[in-house]
Amino acid sequence: MEFDFLNFEFYSPYFLLLFLLFIPLLIRDKRKKKRTGITVPSTGNMKESGGILFVLFMLKISKYLLLSALILAMARPRTFSVSEDRDETKGIDIMLSVDVSLSMLARDLEPDRLTALQNIAKRFVEKRPNDRLGLVTYSGEAFTKVPVTSDHQVLLDELSSLDPLELQPGTAIGEGLSVAVNHLKDSKAKSKIIILMTDGVNTIQNAMNPQIAAQLAQGTGIKVYSIGIGTNGYALMPTRTDIFGDLIFTETEVRIDEPTLKDIAEITGGKYFRATSNESLENVYEEINLLEKSDNKASKLYNYKEFFRYFLWFALAILVLDALLRWWMYRLLN
């Protein structure tokens, strides 16, 4: 018998008030003891007086044990667990496809592009409690970090640990989009969304063409919101490392392949955004949040484990034991 004490309750706790009946019973037994005391009969069949005293004690407390077990059974002790039930065909599946190339450490957003994106994306995730979300990261290659899931904490943890050095260098926008498309294409959700984020231009020539990836998305009913991240003009970007392996930042012209990002959005029926500051990036996510309304309300399911049967079996055992002890006493005294 396992108890989860954090999720323990009585279904009918008012039955526990019946324990107040013990008060008059205890008072009656105390008065009876003062009046008559306990007499230990003398008989040749008794080897030790300790045995009869134990039997008398058990007979005395058996009624309290029996009543306690019945009262607890009527109060119905139980533990419960809570799960959520969602109709995935009514929700929205959203895949975040994030550019994690080294240029995402540029400092034209505070404190840098990647950190700003992490913080804003996490707030976006927290505003979508009833939808499934996932994460793809890409630079010179693309990788699915989190498949679409209702467990948003996993996604938040992965967003917190984005690393620009974990993938091959470069920017393969088409790869980042196609991997997200491949993961969402079989989804049964009423709406399938990819939020594609990059701060550069497509530099991997032998990778998936972004426009072809967009056509694949359009063919499977996936809408893409593309976001170009970076200020207009110049920004401090990591360009090389020193002898200690630390990044050196220099003023570099910001180049974003806006025509490609606009094509992707237009092909899939989405929308292109340009985020040049923390505030504008926040506004982009807020607009997407408003554009994609979900009607998939999660309902809570309570799963109960009842324990009253254990107390009923205990009461039955006490009842049988009491009968056997009384029969034994009767045989002993007659």
What this model shows, in words?
Residues 43-48 have low confidence and may be disordered. It is built from nine helices and eleven strands. Helix 2 (49-75) runs antiparallel to helix 9 and helix 3 (113-126) packs antiparallel against helix 4. The chain has helices spanning 22-36, 49-75, 113-126, 152-160, 173-184, 210-219, 258-268, 278-291, 308-333; strands at residues 8-10, 77-85, 92-99, 132-138, 142-149, 191-198, 222-229, 234-241, 247-253, 271-275, 299-306. It has 334 residues and is an alpha/beta fold.
In short:
The chain is an alpha/beta fold. It has helices spanning 22-36, 49-75, 113-126, 152-160, 173-184, 210-219, 258-268, 278-291, 308-333; strands at residues 8-10, 77-85, 92-99, 132-138, 142-149, 191-198, 222-229, 234-241, 247-253, 271-275, 299-306.
